[in-house]
């Protein structure tokens, strides 16, 4: 219930597999609204969008159709760290999402607020709307975002709302508490929106997109032919001094906000308070779209009084004459600690009830979207009494995210980073299709239904098989083709690499530092001619596999070793309290989380290796 990024992907996840879906939202005009920054992807988040696409979700497709700029972040690091990011046209993004949802034959809509759930004998049977309608269903996915008892803060002002200009959702939290759920409060924030016509871009650093531009989807979506630039500017001590004038009216410093905010995306007042030694902070001046002058000031999230925000803005270089469309604000809302869920995102307390997105304590469109997709898929499977679809930590960043949430919980808004994934060489953004599309094909046998114009799962698998075959052919060419010293030594010396004294295979040359396909192709016409027949994405995949083969194999061995514990199941209603040989904390955590396998149990906070050994004995191992 809710049509943000989690709700949209949940609807598509279930609808693609053949379920009839009713998407209920309080406002049909704000479907897939980008409530905060007008961008998709980023560090680790870009990998998630690629994974959503590989599983049949639409976030990547919508982004490609509505992007205004594309950049691959972390190019200076290894491929495991490369992360795609796109600036989007905010209005086009929402419009494209709605268009695709309306085109799906299995998706229907209803505009209303969900005020409660129909629950009988521990099983959800539908929802009750604000207008008093009872809508029956076999499963429910709650994707409420920041709307559950949401309160907006601007200085000393506070008022109910799930987003500026939209009312909060009430009733659901209170009912879930009565059913035995635990709830908490979190907060997030957003910066002021500016009039781009009033800014002096000549005084800022320009940030262009990649040329040629990349894209997110593995399907045949368009690539950007032209792009809008972003700009960078900085705060200063003068800006900080003005902001400090408003601290006495700050809802954060005066204790009016009880919820914890995102550690890695703090408000500007939090930054200058926590990092008092920093003389300046970076700000990104991001366009909201092709046909608007509205600007998003990334890095200046604030809940200070609007007059303080405005005064501080005009102290920033390039913003001396800035006009403000609306001030930044903080929003506080209810969430439900995610250790009350199984790995399928189904709740422990109510069967066929699923939570996805910020209700689980996460932050970010991408984190919400992937949870929605997985919840939608598993809701479809649950009503058919089929096994849930669960991604392991070695399968996807999505698997890491859900595993972290369920097994460790979170007391602050959870954001994905590459550092959270222990198998990130395996989980690269370029191979998401090879990793995940075959899993979805097995799941969707005979049931896949998609929007007209969007490739079917069979067509997606054709591309996956073509990519896999091309990668093998390219690797084989490098392993079988030799080069002589007279052809390649001049090039090797130019890149600071030792010359060769006899014929060697191309494969060995490519593995050297400072050698890559881009600088090797002009030296070897035969190689260039051979590679011209392949798509650039296939070439990138083959190059990465060759150069990082040893690391990939080592990481796969580590993953396989850990998977042995995943193969040891735990009975669904196993009584952990009777195992007195493990700690009281471990018994409590295990009873609450209800792990499905020994592997999952080993990752629960508070469960020690000694506890795992005892569990293995009780499982007959």
Tell me what you see in this structure:
The protein is an alpha+beta fold and about 625 residues long. The protein has four domains: about 5-145 and about 340-445, FAD/NAD(P)-binding domain, CATH 3.50.50.60; about 195-330, Elongation Factor Tu (Ef-tu), domain 3; about 455-550, tRNA uridine 5-carboxymethylaminomethyl modification enzyme MnmG/GidA (Arc Repressor Mutant, subunit A, Orthogonal Bundle); about 565-620, Orthogonal Bundle (DNA polymerase, domain 1). It is about 35% helix and about 15% strand. It is built from 21 helices and 22 strands. The strands form seven sheets. It has a six-stranded antiparallel β-sheet with strand order 14-15-16-17-13-18, with no helix packed on it. A four-stranded antiparallel β-sheet has the order 11-10-19-12, with no helix packed on it. A three-stranded antiparallel β-sheet has the order 2-4-3. The longest helix is centred in the C-terminal third of the chain and has 24 residues, at about 455-480. It is globular, with a radius of gyration of 26 Å. The model has no long low-confidence stretch (mean pLDDT about 95).
